Amino acid sequence: MPITHRLLAASVAIMWGLNFLAIDASLAQFPPYFLVAFRFALIAIPTVLLVPLPKVKLRWLIGYGLGFGTLQFLFLYWGMAIGMPAGLASLVLQTSAPFTVLLGATLLRERVSAPQLLGILVAVAGLTVVGMHRAGAAALVPFLLTVAGAFGWALGNICNRQARTTEPLRLTLWMSVVPPLPMLALSLAVEGPEAIAGSFTGLASTTGILALLGLAYTVLIGTVAGSGIWSWLMARHPAGVVAPFSLLVPVVGITAAWLVLGQAVAWEELLGGALLVGGVFLGSLSRFPWSPLRAPEAAQAPEASRTSAATPVTPSAAPAPAALPTAESTHDRD
């Protein structure tokens, strides 16, 4: 992977990490359910008018939109609106990866390798540490809502995988068509028309301007730019090479929340976060690096090198994504 592509991958992690600050700013002005509907409507309208429908089965497109687009951001925005810190949210949302493995094994009968199983156990241990600290700090409900959002993301990952698309960015854009109507209906029922109308007053204030800038960042940078670059990289490199860069997202998110919002993170949360991120990284491996299965491959390396030298590599020849995705299936984290 060339250094320029590594820098692009790191830039996406920065975009997605800062995205949580943008969400926090937008939630200061708009109610959470309506904000989800508003955010995706801004993407859905030009998508319907300008972007061709991806060649996938409709049920997987809808499932992806309901899981990744609707459930993930319903619970994430709700949790952040009632007190989940932006930096910690960027970390806890990484639990989508072990959830994806468990759902894949349960629903799709996918085999769970030893590194994946160990990664799940380590990630659950980290999540438990963070959860116990959150419970002691009387902020457990926002934490649990964020975990529920990660589970929705995992459901979206399963549908994304079943769609088996060769047009990932187009699928992501059309996924955005699903959330606006159900989220608007939920917003009208729970938050009410008055709260929605009231959120459009005071947009000229500092809070309102920051909210609009945050919304624009989420749509243009977090979704369109971030997803576009990530999809471009995933089409050119193995998932196992690109995916680990997504583990920089909580690092950026926590650091930015501390510098900009003054949100300090307790040492218990840092310890749990290190276990969680480590478990996700471990679970992204198809096997342990010291596995004896690598020996036969090494013996065949010269022949493989001659073959690869004679045959150009195309995107379709790249290895399939690892069974424990982190951000490659989501493209827009947020």
TrEMBL record:
Belongs to the EamA transporter family. Residues 304-328 have a biased composition (Low complexity). It is found in: Membrane. Pfam families: EamA. Residues 7-130, 144-282 form the EamA domain. The lineage of its organism: Bacteria, Bacillati, Actinomycetota, Actinomycetes, Micrococcales. InterPro entries: AA-Vitamin_Transporters, EamA_dom, EmrE-like. It comes from Brevibacterium samyangense. Residues 299-334 are annotated as: Disordered. This is EamA family transporter. Keywords: Membrane, Transmembrane, Transmembrane helix. It is a multi-pass membrane protein. The chain crosses the membrane at residues 32-53, 60-80, 86-108, 115-133, 139-159, 171-189, 209-233, 245-264, 270-290. It comes from the Bacteria.
